[in-house]
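This follows on from our talk about sequence and fold. Go ahead and set the record down below:
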Amino acid sequence: MSDQPNPAPQSEDGPGELLASVAALRRRTRAARHAYWLPLLLFGLLMAVAAPLYVESVESPALRATHDNPALTGLGGDFLERSAALGWYWLVALIGGYLLSLWWYRWHGERVGVQTPTRAYLIAGIVGTLVGLVLPIVLRFMLLNTATAVSNVTSWVTAPLLGVSNRGMLPHLVIAVGLVVLARLERSRGLTAVAVGYAAAVLLVNIYFHTTDFQPGDLNRFSFMLAALLPAPILLIGGTVALLATLKASKRST
């Protein structure tokens, strides 16, 4: 019999190492489920495709007279010449884009084994689209058909929102709300940065149009197109960076 004690096993990890391993596994799992590059590129491309509808066929005055368009074209903007076509385009593009994003996340989740819950994202997109259809009607009623006292109190909200609607940029706000919700679901700092930057660009464009005292001739036939397209590169660049990062991570794992 030997009097020397048996050495204690050294293979067990300490609490700190276990916590570090769990944290690393959690980060890898979260990175594996990130698939937001497709919604970013998708909605950025949808904006680019819509660009011709924002172009006026002739030199237009600073403020175009409103049209008597059907209610379902509220997403198109009454200041624009092709507001009816633009409204129908965004109605189909928004609903189709959110449904395609939902399918994409489900397919990606089945492939990698980790799925991001996207129901809230879909609800935000569909509800936002419906609100975009109804909001212009409500805003015009509040601004034009309510008592003067009520109209004066609420005009600081109704007038800017109606301006966003009339310029055909309500769909951009719907996309921004959806991306903010998706960033929360993904718990992604990268997507949060893109969503906040995109939302800020949309707001700054509309603040510029709202606060600038345009005179007849100040706006040309491309002014509304440029306003609508300025936020789009943020989505396209953010989606491209996210896609490249995903491809690089998949190469490392193989």
In short: The CA atoms of residues 33 and 114 lie 5 Å apart. Residues 83-112 form the longest helix (30 residues).
